[in-house]
């Protein structure tokens, strides 16, 4: 899984800030990706985009649990 920096935080306030930045980044990224025709890209590039999206989604789902844990 790609590391987006959230799980290396050791302070709840910093982790919450990082999580908010990641959520904003994910929204902007989704807007850009929705304009791209993934079928027109080569397989490796499309796979990389989709894999990063999946990793980001996973981080955003587990992020609040991590922040609460801190």
In total, how many beta strands? 0
The largest pleated sheet is described as: none
| Helix-and-strand structural type | mainly alpha
Q: Give the rounded overall mean pLDDT.
A: 93
Q: Please work out how many helical segments DSSP would assign.
A: 2
Cα gyration radius (Å) = 14 Å
Strand content: under 5%
Give the % helix. Answer: over 70%
Segments where pLDDT lies below 50 for 5+ residues? none
The total domain count is 1
Alpha-carbon distance between the two ends: 21 Å
- Please tell me what the overall shape is: elongated
Order of helices and strands: HH
Word description of this protein:
The protein has 70 residues and is mainly alpha-helical. The protein has one domain. The chain contains two helices and no strands.
Descriptive labels:
70 residues; 2 helices; mainly alpha; 70% helix
In short:
The protein has 70 residues and is mostly helical. It has two helices and no strands.
How would you summarize the topology of this molecule?
Layout: H1 12-33, H2 43-69
